[in-house]
Amino acid sequence: MDESMSRALFFCNSASLIWEHNPFWSHIREVGEAQFVIMFKHIAGKVSKKDLCLFAALSRAAWTSRNKAIFDDHPHCPQLLVAIFVNYVEQYNGYSRRVHSNQASCPSIFAKKWKKPNGGVVKINVDAAFFQDNSMGLGAVARNAEGQIPFTAARRVAGRWDVNVAEAAACLFGVWP
To answer: Residue ranges of the RNase H type-1 domain (predicted)?
Structure first.
């Protein structure tokens, strides 16, 4: 039996444990098993940006929970995954506030606006981040000429590498997750 992405993220046994007891459940039930992009647009139209970030973190936790239920040999706790992914979002938001609060005093050499690639080309933006617990994050976002996002990826890595090594690792991660 083929499993849709929405079914895997919201309605399979391990994922439903994540959704059934949070405020997003009523919105999810309104849409049912529609395509994920329809679900995401529906939720985005009903909640704040902060809550949309939480929804994305819970979606990632649900996907991880579903994969662990299918592919891992030992049981896991979906609620623990939720706590981990929500913590990632909170750490990122704290980092982002600290970085962007100093922007006015620093002239930027980076583009202020995303520039689309030529047709048929996918542009991949990558970054590395360092966390206070001596771990790092690697992230990638791919966009095509229409601005659509074919994939995103993020990974937490134990340890703290040299900044240039971490950025190089993010580049590699972006093209070979």
So the answer is: 125-175
